[in-house]
Every structure is written in C-alpha cells, then in structure tokens.
Here is the input.
Amino acid sequence: MIAKTQELTRMYRLGASVIVAVNKVNLEVKEAAFVSIVGPSGSGKTTLLNLIGLNDRPTSGKVFFKSEDTSLLTDKERRKIRLQNIGFVFQTFNLLPTLTALENVELPLALAKVPPKLQREKAIQLLEAVGLSDRLQHRPKELSSGEMQRVAIARALANNPCLILADEPTGELDSETGYEITKLLLSLCRKHKTTVVVATHDERVAKASDVKYSIRDGMIT
Ligand SMILES: Nc1ncnc2c1ncn2[C@@H]1O[C@H](COP(=O)(O)OP(=O)(O)OP(=O)(O)O)[C@@H](O)[C@H]1O
Ligand SMILES: [Mg+2]
Here is the structure.
C-alpha cells in the first residue's frame, strides 16, 4: 500500500462561511495501481491530491504514506518524503518558461543534489522516454501543449518517485493528445510499477484506470 486516507477532512474558512472541500474520505492506493478520482468542478479533487501529496495538512483525519502516519511528521520531514517519493503533474503543466525542456527536467534532479553531469544524462533519458529527444533545447512556448505535458511528466519522474499525482493532466489538451498522455501515464505505471493517481473529468482516463473513485461535494460516493 502506497497511500491511505482515514476520515480525511479539509475545511476552508472564508469569513463566516466554512467549506468542507474534503469530507471524511477513506481511500487506499495500492502499489503499482492506476487510480482515477472523478468528479465535477469544485468536488474536492485538487484539495484531495494536495493532501495525499503532503502539500497540505488536513483539518482532521489522516494520510498514511507507506503505512507511516504523516500527521506526526514535521513539515521538513514531509517535504523530504515528497521530494523522494512523489511526482506531480498539473493541468497547466507548470513548466518554468525561461528554461529549456532539458533544464526543466534537470531542476528536480538539482534539488535532489544529483551531480550536474548525471542530471544531464538522466534528463536526456527521461525526455527520450516520453518521446521528446528532438525537443531538448525548446522552451515551453516553443512546444505544443501535448509536448509541454510530456516534459512535465518527464520532470515528475526525475527522482524515480513511487507515486505520481496528476491533477487533470489532460484538461488542457485536445482529446487525441489527451488520450496519448493517458496512454503514456498508463505505460509508465505498468513498466516502472509507478503508482499513478489522476484527478480527471475525462471518462477515457477513468476507463483506463484500475480503480475509480467518484467524488462529489468532498465525499467519495
Ligand atoms: N484556498 C481555498 N480557500 C477557500 N475555498 C477553497 C480553497 N481551495 C478550494 N476551495 C473550495 O473547495 C472546494 C473544492 O475545491 P477543489 O479545487 O479541490 O475542487 P476540484 O474538484 O479540484 O475542482 P476543479 O475540477 O474545478 O479543479 C471548492 O468549493 C472550492 O471553492
Ligand atoms: Mg482541481
């Protein structure tokens, strides 16, 4: 088991009102699974991924990462788990615009203190694996949106994470490109036994998944 949530709840207070964005969610993510979280806009998908990814802390309830109760950890300890184990992919790619594809992928390797020469070798390998060996020197604005998402996936894989969290990774892509990206995530999941959790509106992504959770008003239905 990679991740598990227990009565996981996240409330936001805005003035006098309280929004329960995630409401007593219990879910389990098994090793090497391709898991989808499907729900309408505002249902709590991003909030849930941020909690599982240890970017945010719950109002109540718990996230276990590889059986460890993460509520007992300091922010520094949580950050370490995140850097070593989790890769993120976002709807809007979140690439750094001034860096080339290669440099974008090297960045997390640099953060993990990989020696520069190895950074370069690894980043080239990763970009090859997502079919972009001929785009190494392109900056994001010189890439198509599907290519940008491939770079983002290569970047997410840089430190060999056991878990990839993808928040609507096909949301900005046309349906054909979105399908290619879904197949890529699925093949990475199968080949490297990487666990993938993907939040999506896209029924085709959901169909490809081993386990599907539906979320509505913060609750798994
Ligand atoms: N920082 C915040 N402060 C207050 N309310 C928030 C905050 N972030 C999210 N919310 C609210 O929490 C609920 C869940 O938001 P969330 O972003 O998790 O939904 P989502 O399922 O990812 O939606 P989408 O599909 O549009 O990305 C929404 O009602 C949203 O308005
Ligand atoms: Mg969202």
